[in-house]
Amino acid sequence: MLLFSRQGKLRLQKWYVPLSDKERKKISRDLVQTILARKPKMCSFLEYASLYFCCAVEDQDNELITLEIIHRYVELLDKYFGSVCELDIIFNFEKAYFILDEFLLGGEAQETSKKNVLKAIEQADLLQEVRPVPQLHVARITVQPAFVSCVPFVLS
C-alpha cells in the first residue's frame, strides 16, 4: 500500500512482498508519476483529500475488496485522528503504520470490525501512557587518566 501527496511525496508505504530497495523506489516512482499524470476521469486509484491511496493486487485478488480495504483504512484513520489530514500522517506516521498493521496482516484483512481495531489501538495507547520510563541518574563518577566509569541507578 502506498500513500502519497499531490506533489508526489510518499507519506506511507507498506510492502507485502520481498523487493530490494532499488526495486521499491522504481515501482514507487513509476506509480506516482503514472497516477499524478492521469486525468480525473481515468480512475483506478482512490484519492482522499490531498492523499492518493494505491494498492497492488494479484490476478486472483478481488479489486472491489481492495477498494473496500482502502476505504476501511481511511475510515479507521478518520476515527482515530478525527477527520484525518495529510499532516496527521506526516507527524504521526508510526500510528498510521500501527493502525494499518492492526487492520492488515501480510496484505490481507485480519480484522474487519472498525470497533475492534480501534479498541486494540486504544489499548496500545494506554500501555504507552501507563508504562513509566525509568530515569537514570549518575551515582558516582570516577575519573582516571585512561577511562571514565559511571554507575547508573534507577530512582522510583
| Topology order in helix (H) and strand (E) letters | EEHEEHHHEEHEE
Strand content: 15-25%
Helix content: 40-55%
Average pLDDT for all residues: 82
Distance between the termini: 44 Å
CATH architecture: 2-Layer Sandwich
- Which strand order spans the largest sheet, edge to edge or round the barrel? 2-1-4-3
Q: What's the story with the biggest beta sheet?
A: 4 strands, antiparallel
Poorly predicted tracts of residues: 142-156
Structural class: alpha+beta
CATH class group = Alpha Beta
Tertiary shape:
globular
Spatial extent as radius of gyration = 22 Å
Please tell me the total number of domains.
1
Number of strands: 8
* Tally of separate helices: 5
CATH topology: Beta-Lactamase
Pfam family, one: Clat_adaptor_s
GO molecular function: clathrin adaptor activity
Subcellular location: Cytoplasmic vesicle membrane; Golgi apparatus; Membrane, Clathrin-coated pit
Subunit structure: Adaptor protein complex 1 (AP-1) is a heterotetramer composed of two large adaptins (gamma-type subunit AP1G1 and beta-type subunit AP1B1), a medium adaptin (mu-type subunit AP1M1 or AP1M2) and a small adaptin (sigma-type subunit AP1S1 or AP1S2 or AP1S3).
